[in-house]
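Weekly modeling sync, notes
Attendees: AB, CL, MP (scribe)

Item 1: holo prediction request
CL wants a bound-state model with glutathione before deciding which constructs to order. AB pointed out that an apo prediction alone won't tell us much about the pocket. Agreed to run with the ligand included and paste results into these notes for async review.

Input as submitted:
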Amino acid sequence: MYTLYLGNKNYSSWSLRGWFATKLSGAPFREVGVQLVGQGRNPANRSFSPSGFVPALHDGETVVWDTMAIAETLAERHRGLWPAESAARAWARSISAEMHSSFQALRSEMTMCVRERLDVRPWSDALAADIARVEEIWSESRRRFGRGGPYLCGAASLADAFYAPVAFRFQTYRVAPAGEAGGYLATLLAHPFMREWEHDAVAETIVIEADEPRTLYRDKLAARA
Ligand SMILES: N[C@@H](CCC(=O)N[C@@H](CS)C(=O)NCC(=O)O)C(=O)O
């Protein structure tokens, strides 16, 4: 049985990706919750994750860290995690890699905080550009590869795991994409894995100030009041 080390569910977007991917594999796994510090690499995590980051997946002596490695390792071992058709699979890998390596404004200006709801418009230009790119990816995915089901490439795949935290961010910051992208957002938020994660996340009571939207936007919200 796998063991998955993961951070606070309310805040840890990378943990959600790794968890969603592991759930998608259908394999049984044990969760080990790790308290986030919120200041980057945590040396205290190095006993189970060489990078000092969560998530990390253990299978006996085999340790896999970083969500992309976790996703690819699971895909090698379990069927159907990437789309079966070659062009769809290349697309799914590309949009997942893009999410893994880009979207800095989205990460820093729309921190994941599942329990929160607020609107901080106007967004910065960089954030608006990241949001527009997500919406484009979602619409294009649905238009080009979505025929076999309601997710990015039809049936739920690892690509949805990579965009799962974005759905919670959009819900928190009241981003409401139009058309296909909006339909996909609602579908992803209703996925049983997302409901399960949300249920656990909102039950958490620990507050990490650095990741709190109302801390991040304190001045803007105060100026508005
Ligand atoms: N590139 C890594 C990023 C992982 C990451 O940044 N994890 C954060 C939590 S979301 C972390 O472990 N932070 C340590 C801490 O805050 O204590 C991945 O894909 O897994």
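Recorded for review: Strands lie at 2-6, 29-33, 56-59, 62-65.
Action items: CL to compare against the apo run; MP to circulate these notes.
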